Amino acid sequence: MTTDDTFGTRLIGDIAATLPGATAVFRRFKLDFCCGGNVSLTEAAGKRGLDVAAIVEALSALDAGSSAAVPSATGALIDHIVARYHETHRRELPELARLARKVEAVHAGHPEAPQGLADTLEEIRAELEEHMQTEETTLFPLMRQQPDAESVVPTAQIRHDHDRHGELLRRLETIANGFVLPQGACRSWTALYTGTSKLVDDVMDHIHLENNVLFPRFERREAL
Questions:
Q1: What is the pTM of this model?
Q2: 23-38 pLDDT, tens per residue?
Q3: Spatial contact of 221 and 150, defined as CB atoms under 8 Å apart
Q4: Does 18 map to a domain?
């Protein structure tokens, strides 16, 4: 188990990859552990003006067995990513976009109406679909064929896509006022923000598993 005084110097992506429950802590403190995972916890906290001691305390309190572990074998991990994230995104995004268009139209005159949310959700859906197709038809088959081979699987473009996805997620949060509902919000508006907030969490976890757990298994070979 990691001791308290080492958390501050570790990369937040590494902490998220090895400590179950850490991703929820980072989301609570609004720390980017997926695309921004290559900085130490102390540096990441400092950039946001956060008390690193409070974050360390939250991490230290985690029970290592409290969250379901993802599969460790490469093939099983890929299966998990496709089933848990790819299929979930495909199922949820069309309905979220439909709901967003309804809320934007019905509440067009409301000062807090999330105008532009539907278009951004459609943009995310289109970009994610192309991205996931590339992974499923090209990248993941290569990884399955050579999980232990002395070879490098190209991931640079996929990581670039992940950075772009992160930008779109931040746009969603901005448009939706951090998913804080206005007083008296209707059920559709409530469902929209609940679902879109979950989408953001899911995409962040999805990117984290690829950037910080799956991809490094192949990228490290480049330096051999």
A1: 0.75
A2: 778 888 989 887 788 8
A3: yes
A4: yes
